[in-house]
Amino acid sequence: MIEENKMKAAPEENEECAAECGGEEKCHKGDKKSKKEIAALKEENASLAEALAAEKDKYLRLAAEYDNFRRRSQKEKEQIYADSYADVIEQLLPIIDNFEMARNFSEGEKLAEGVKMILTQASEVFEKMGVTEIETKIFDPNVHNAVMHIDDDTYGEGEIIEVFRKGYRRGDKIIRYAMVKVAN
Asked: Which of 2, 44, 118, 166 keeps 20 to 30 A from 110, CA to CA?
């Protein structure tokens, strides 16, 4: 359509060109323009292809970097868990050692004294680790596990009469629920 407008605007120029080229449809000026447009489009296409390749490279590098980060994080997490586990075992080993030494005693008094010392040592280890014993005065279903129940008017409502197994927590996390006997 643009070429038609040019042909109408300058008829003498079109006639010269048509005479040289052998007709209006095969004008060399139009071919030059088309060749220039094609060359420009090819350049634009090449630059877009380069930009696409650069973006694809960025994407692949980012994906690889993320994958490496994910693997590294997983290894670090596993290593932290293994180190924590080893630290806990290391703190408990002296208690085991003391039990083994207590096994060698045959006298009842020394054995009882040794067991008390071991319990004190275990409590200290738990305290260092932030583990506390759950209180066992009034029944709380969130921290106690009632395995027995009695009706006795001498005890108050929900009072814990006997503790079969102590419960422990670390912060808000219950490690083990206390196993108790509850009244009323």
From this structure: 166
